[in-house]
């Protein structure tokens, strides 16, 4: 299959999942995760219609950004970010998906030259290999974040365990959605909390059914 036809296949399957969920197609943004490929391949994806690029590491983000910054794209940093690297990258990022500590948030506040849209990463499954705030931690964290006026907390991001079965996935995505609604109702000034970043190549149709507004898809574009 050509790259073009794989891109079309992914977009079609996202549209199908939206339709099944009774949601408009444009309620879900597809982020192409380009961490497996170089900037030439990323550029092919853009030619094939991709509008959101996601990278999980700063060096690879900067490589793609340098090559493709003249295109009209949205740039997503989706992986954990070391504090000392914040200044190199944060002002190039449209959405940062992996806010997982107050210290990191404070560093972003300090380095930001404009409002940075961030997702709070939450660890719903409780796996200790996963980054992110536990549900219990959030009560202490929210008051610390609400004064950081350079951050706009647009929603929650979660990653399901790799080997999770469908029932577990549904449970994790539903709990994330419930938590998002709960936080949204708090109407905290810098936390609109309208978005949900969840779903990867193996589970995005389920995530869309459960309310994802951003899906992060890598493998499905390349295999
Ligand atoms: C790699 C990665 C993805 C994409 O995973 P695929 O299974 O290849 O679709 C999504 N989110 C994050 C944070 C990643 O690191």
Short overview:
The chain has 9 helices and 8 strands.
Describe this structure in words.
The chain has helices spanning 3-20, 39-47, 58-68, 86-89, 102-111, 135-145, 166-185, 204-209, 219-222; strands at 29-33, 52-55, 74-77, 95-99, 116-121, 151-157, 195-197, 214-217. The protein is α/β, with parallel strands linked by helices and 223 residues long. α7 (166-185) links the parallel β6 (151-157) and β7 (195-197). The longest helix has 20 residues, at 166-185. It starts with a helix and ends with a helix. The structure holds pyridoxal-5'-phosphate. The site of pyridoxal-5'-phosphate has 14 residues, from β8 and α9.
Low-confidence stretches: none
**What's the tally of helices?**
9
Fraction of residues in β-strands: 15-25%
Determine the structural class based on helices, strands and strand pairing. alpha/beta
Please state the overall shape, judged from the principal axes of the Cα atoms.
globular
- Average of per-residue pLDDT values: 96
Using only CA atoms, what is the Rg?
Answer: 17 Å
Side by side, the strands of the main sheet go 7-6-5-4-3-2-1-8
Q: What is the terminal separation in angstroms?
A: 9 Å
The total beta strand count reads 8
Largest sheet: 8 strands, parallel
SSE series = HEHEHEHEHEHEHEHEH
Ions, cofactors and other bound molecules: pyridoxal-5'-phosphate
**Helical fraction:** 40-55%
Task: Explain the layout of strands and helices.
Layout: H1 3-20, E1 29-33, H2 39-47, E2 52-55, H3 58-68, E3 74-77, H4 86-89, E4 95-99, H5 102-111, E5 116-121, H6 135-145, E6 151-157, H7 166-185, E7 195-197, H8 204-209, E8 214-217, H9 219-222
Parallel strand pairs: 1-2, 1-8, 2-3, 3-4, 4-5, 5-6, 6-7
Helix pairs in contact: 2-3
Bound molecules: pyridoxal-5'-phosphate.
């Amino acid at each position: 299959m050509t790259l073009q036809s794989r891109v079309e296949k992914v977009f079609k399957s996202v549209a199908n999942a939206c339709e099944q969920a009774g949601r408009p197609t444009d309620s879900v943004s597809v982020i192409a995760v380009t961490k497996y490929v170089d900037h030439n391949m990323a550029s092919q994806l853009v030619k094939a219609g991709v509008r959101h690029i996601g990278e999980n590491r700063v060096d690879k983000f900067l490589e793609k950004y340098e090559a493709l910054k003249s295109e009209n794209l949205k740039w997503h940093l989706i992986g954990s970010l070391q504090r000392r690297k914040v200044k190199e990258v944060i002002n190039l990022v449209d959405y940062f998906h992996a806010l997982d500590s107050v210290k990191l948030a404070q560093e972003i506040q300090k380095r930001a030259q404009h409002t940075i849209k961030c997702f709070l990463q939450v660890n719903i499954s409780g796996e200790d290999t996963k980054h992110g705030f536990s549900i219990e931690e959030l009560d202490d964290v929210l008051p610390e974040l609400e004064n950081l006026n350079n951050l706009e907390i647009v929603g929650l991001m979660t990653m399901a365990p790799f080997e999770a079965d469908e029932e577990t996935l549904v449970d994790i995505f539903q709990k994330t959605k419930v938590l998002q609604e709960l936080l949204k109702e708090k109407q905290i000034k810098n936390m609109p909390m309208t978005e949900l970043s969840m779903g990867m190549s193996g589970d995005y149709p389920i995530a869309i059914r459960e309310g994802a507004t951003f899906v992060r898809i890598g493998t499905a574009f390349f295999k």
